[in-house]
Design a protein that fits this description.
Strand order of the largest sheet: 1-2-3-4
Largest sheet: 4 strands, mixed
Distance between the termini: 107 Å
Structural class: alpha+beta
Shape: rod-shaped
Helix content: 40-55%
């Protein structure tokens, strides 16, 4: 069990919590006061929660984390030595990730718009080719009609 004190916690309330945790067999209990940068810990021995004398550098047998109190705030490290992020660090990381995701979304939207413009350009090009084909067919039909009309009039179009 790991708790962080807040200004609203009263000593009597915390004593009752400790007694409850002790009665129900909690293996380890850690209480952190961020205002004083003070960590207090208890570990179950001989059926009772007993105080841990030195918390700085303590490695929790249950949680497999190490507590470091040498800096301006409590730092907690994993079994492999990786430091857990603080709340503000996690918030900053989340904000950076949110900004990155927003930039990625904007890039994707720009790419979508570019693809739509390309598709429109390709459609316009297809329509122009279709118009050219139809105009060519119309021109060939008119030439054929004029050719036949000249022949009807007794004029050999090949001699023109």
């Amino acid at each position: 069990m790991f708790e962080i004190l807040s200004p609203g916690n009263r000593p009597g309330e915390m004593t009752k919590k400790f007694e409850l945790y002790d009665r129900y067999g909690v293996e380890e209990y850690y209480l952190y006061d961020p205002d004083k940068v003070k960590l207090t810990g208890w570990r179950r021995r001989e059926g009772k929660l007993q105080s841990i004398d030195q918390m700085d550098g303590w490695v929790s047998p249950r949680l497999k984390v190490r507590f470091d109190l040498t800096g301006p705030e409590l730092q907690i490290f994993t079994e492999s030595g990786v430091r857990f992020l603080t709340y503000s660090e996690m918030a900053q990381r989340a904000e950076r990730e949110e900004q990155r995701a927003e930039r990625e979304q904007q890039r994707a939207e720009r790419e979508q718009q570019r693809a739509e413009r390309e598709q429109q350009r390709a459609e316009q090009e297809r329509q122009l080719k279709e118009q050219e084909r139809q105009l060519k067919e119309q021109a060939e039909a008119k030439i054929k009609m004029l050719y036949l009309r000249l022949q009807e009039l007794g004029i050999d179009p090949e001699q023109l």
